[in-house]
Fold this sequence. Notes:
This protein has helices at residues 15-20, 29-42, 47-63, 80-97, 116-120, 137-155, 157-178, 186-202, 205-213, 218-244, 247-254, 258-291, 296-324, 333-358; strands at residues 2-11, 26-27, 68-74, 99-107, 125-130.
Amino acid sequence: MAGFTLVLMVDRDDDVGVKTGLRAPIIGRENCLSAALALGTADPEEADTNAIMGAVKAYDQLKGEGECEIAIVTGSPEGGLKADKVIKGQLEKINQVVNFTDIVLVSDGVEDEAVLPILMSYAPIRSVVRVVVKHSQNIEESYIVLGKYLKMALFDIRYSKYFLGIPGLILLIYAILYFTPIRDLASYLILLIVGLAFIVKGFNLDSAVSQMRRNPYFLLRFLTAISSILITAMGAIKVAELISLTSQFIQIQKQFTAALLGYLVGYSIINIEPYIWTALALIIVVNVAVAVRRSRVAVLRELTLFVALSLYYIPFFTIGLLLMNPKISAIPLITIVLAFLATAFIVIYYIFDYWKNKS
């Protein structure tokens, strides 16, 4: 037969032969359809099945234009030069049956198209048809899952507040700050907000607050904690201001010495101690008030902590004096006694705590 166009499907890794047991070359439309059916039955997910059907379609389109034939050639599972040698031998057999003048190559991948130099040694390549499988289970499932998550992120209030609400709020804050005199600080403020959000979620602080809200004394404890933080912050600001006015602070900027550092640390302890002790005492007093409605043991437990805090005031004050003036070598006996008693009350506090947990 002369003047034929050969529609050729190339299976370089021989999936057709390995999975169906058929021997190539396979020539003729009906034989190719049988091979596609056998391969699809053996492995429904095999892409070469679609390539064979694509070759059949191309053959049917060319049949009305002129004389043509369809064939399948296979290589070897080992690939490479061995596969090319097998394909060349099969082309010789086809050439003995069909005297084709050009070739339409049908493949499902770049690997099969690597045989183009071999094919061109027999006849010009008229066209290359790439069969791309539209349906892929993994890709389809990925798109379905992705679409599901996008839908949840957009329309489910549980997730949209994080994917849309928080980014939208950040953009709104940035836009507002940009039109204010502090526009240069807008980026830093946004980073501060994002950082605080990460800390809250990272340490699960929102859940902790949610659990605390179930407590009937939540509001009282919350306001007490905020008040204590504010008192401590005010004390720290005041102490920082006082330190900046001391001559030792000016000297340490010029020349660092351990004596100057000790003085400033001791000065800080003495001046900030009243603020810290007031903040802690406020928390303990509220805890005592709450414990009154529970049990006497709980009241005694909180009172021991309050007594220990009171007794520790003088020892810490003395430490501040010693740091400011290391020449004071003698420590008053009362300071040692108070520190010992305070430690004893702390031990009693933990005994009460252990007893409470055990009960």
